[in-house]
């Protein structure tokens, strides 16, 4: 499985961002000592906000991933949002799932809720595949779908706010070899 992306309608993304902003309004960001992949951003755990109640955002994302990846069913394993500012970045990393086993079928997503203007390499998402580094331009509404085992990160961003919604899923049904 490789990285795929789908560009969502901005009106849907604005709705999602509004809901998530309300969810984090009274939350404290996670302790930076525990964020081994993030440099300079604020990260908020949303797992229990999403896991305890099936909501519009989770249902929509699961449907998009199932359609794009030919997956029958997904279970949410982790969920968080990151607010990045000038200079924020993510070290090259891969995810380890909370359920204790990473398989080639487990899926991670990044949905860009807000992005600053594109400026060269600033803020680009990168991933490693076949020992080569590939880049994807972040764009509001862009949904990236990739295996949790794929190494990835972001270059330091320029001026402006970048907000992402991030989720890890494990696959309950079959999936193709996309």
Short characterization:
The chain is α+β, with helices and mostly antiparallel strands and 178 residues long. The protein has 3 helices and 11 strands. The strands form 2 sheets. A 6-stranded antiparallel beta sheet has the order 1-9-6-11-4-3. A 5-stranded antiparallel beta sheet has the order 2-5-10-7-8, with no helix packed on it.
Features:
alpha+beta, single chain, six-stranded antiparallel β-sheet, Jelly Rolls, 178 residues
Topology, please?
Blueprint: E1 4-7, H1 10-24, E2 38-39, E3 42-45, H2 47-51, H3 56-69, E4 74-84, E5 89-93, E6 107-114, E7 125-129, E8 132-136, E9 142-147, E10 152-154, E11 162-171
Antiparallel strand pairs: 1-9, 2-5, 3-4, 4-11, 5-10, 6-9, 6-11, 7-8, 7-10
What does this structure look like?
By secondary structure, this protein is an alpha+beta fold. The chain has one domain: q2cbj1_9rhob like domain (Jelly Rolls, Sandwich), CATH 2.60.120. It is built from three helices and eleven strands, in the order E-H-E-E-H-H-E-E-E-E-E-E-E-E. It has helices at 10-24, 47-51, 56-69, and strands spanning 4-7, 38-39, 42-45, 74-84, 89-93, 107-114, 125-129, 132-136, 142-147, 152-154, 162-171. The strands form two sheets. A six-stranded antiparallel beta sheet has the order 1-9-6-11-4-3. Strands 2-5-10-7-8 form a five-stranded antiparallel beta sheet, with no helix packed on it. The longest helix is centred in the N-terminal third of the chain and has 15 residues, at 10-24. The protein is globular and about 40 Å long. The relative contact order is 0.28.
């Amino acid at each position: 499985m490789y990285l795929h992306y789908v560009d969502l309608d901005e009106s849907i993304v604005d709705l999602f961002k509004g809901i998530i902003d309300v969810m984090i309004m009274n939350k404290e960001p996670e302790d930076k000592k525990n964020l081994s992949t993030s440099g300079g951003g604020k990260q908020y755990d949303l797992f229990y906000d999403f896991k305890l109640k099936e909501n519009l955002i989770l249902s929509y994302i699961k449907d998009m991933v199932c359609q794009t990846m030919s997956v029958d069913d997904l279970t949410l394993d982790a969920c968080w949002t990151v607010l990045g500012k000038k200079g924020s970045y993510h070290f090259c990393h891969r995810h380890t799932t909370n359920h204790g086993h990473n398989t080639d079928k487990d899926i991670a997503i990044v949905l860009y809720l807000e992005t600053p203007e594109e400026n060269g390499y600033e803020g680009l998402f990168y991933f490693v595949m076949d020992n080569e580094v590939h880049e994807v331009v972040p764009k509001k509404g862009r949904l990236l779908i990739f295996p949790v085992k794929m190494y990835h990160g972001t270059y330091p961003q320029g001026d402006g706010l970048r907000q992402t919604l991030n989720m890890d899923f494990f696959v309950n049904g079959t999936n193709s070899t996309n």
